[in-house]
């Protein structure tokens, strides 16, 4: 049975449409292309089974095909129900990759796809949000023994992994790709910053200039969202629980206040924390008519949707990916993309050039785990700096940018305590 026959996709006939999107992304991913040239010849993953759970869109497809070209047998599923694109799934299924994914599946179907991916008995894993690793440890420990290790893409997943490691239950090494410089400084800041507003703008078709944007959380994703909001002409308020990050937001020129105060002023609210209930039932009565709520975190828990539904007297879909909540006093609040990550659920995700760096890092870290898993042991590790720097160097080279190298005398100076 070939990959198309084994796959579970919505419509295999969408493959040509998906292939055009994948090819467009590939044209703008020079770092991955450079890796492909080498790995497709060397085949370092020959004989290995790789399971991937990522947002299933065009850039992800480029990574999956790179890993396939490196010799692996690849199975892929989505990491969020609304970020899967059916035409991409079809294109991958006819390209030799097994796919278990559909756009907007029922919760039980979404989980079934994850389990089917794991039942291929993978040697290596790429996870986004920690669902594959969590299911392996909590529900399918019978599939763990063959797993050498893997990589985690995002903040939420790393939080789950650190908790698993702290409890002493993590069974294999995982690389915290999200914490690499080439990831959070560029992907989280510039990628999230642009793609969140791409999703909001295409969904609402409303002007941002002159309005007030409340950014909840000032990590690297929050920094990017706030920076782009400022560039679009908005007034920006930041809410935080971390005094250092709050100080940074203040020094960056943004207003800083508690959510209970910020709720009175926002036209747009964007959550970027990875935590639950950062906008909750106590905040909705304070919001003005027409306020728009969006989430940029991995799971749809940052905005308390249950409380919003309980306070509303009526709900309706007023535009694709916009749910209107009519409150008892006549105000209307709007939730984008069911509270799921707005840049992918209501957009195409990060720009191709940004994901080029992130996915090159994923591929290089996967190879590192493959080669060093026994030495690493069952723990969460940071991306080795030489891999992080190599991705940045590849990127600079692709842009025609050169930098200086230290001279032998300078290296000696820096290594000495004597002046």
UniProtKB/TrEMBL annotation:
Keyword Plastid annotated: no
SUPFAM superfamilies: Formate/glycerate dehydrogenase catalytic domain-like, NAD(P)-binding Rossmann-fold domains
Pathway(s) per entry: Amino-acid biosynthesis; L-homocysteine biosynthesis; L-homocysteine from S-adenosyl-L-homocysteine: step 1/1
Reactions catalysed, as given in the entry: S-adenosyl-L-homocysteine + H2O = L-homocysteine + adenosine
Keyword Lipoprotein in record: no
Compartmental location: Cytoplasm
The enzyme's E.C. designation: 3.13.2.1
GO cellular component: cytosol
Binding residue positions for NAD(+): 154-156, 188, 217-224, 240, 275, 296-298, 343, 350
Highest taxon, organism lineage: Bacteria
Enzyme class: hydrolase
Entries under InterPro entries matching the protein: Adenosylhomocyst_ase-like_sf (IPR042172), Adenosylhomocysteinase-like (IPR000043), Ado_hCys_hydrolase_NAD-bd (IPR015878), NAD(P)-bd_dom_sf (IPR036291), S-Ado-L-homoCys_hydrolase_CS (IPR020082)
Main location: cytoplasm
GO BP field: L-homocysteine biosynthetic process; one-carbon metabolic process; S-adenosylmethionine cycle
Annotated positions binding substrate: 128, 153, 183, 187
GO MF annotations in UniProt: adenosylhomocysteinase activity
Domain S-adenosyl-L-homocysteine hydrolase NAD binding: from-to ranges: 188-349
Family: Belongs to the adenosylhomocysteinase family.
Name recorded for this polypeptide: Adenosylhomocysteinase
Organism: Lihuaxuella thermophila
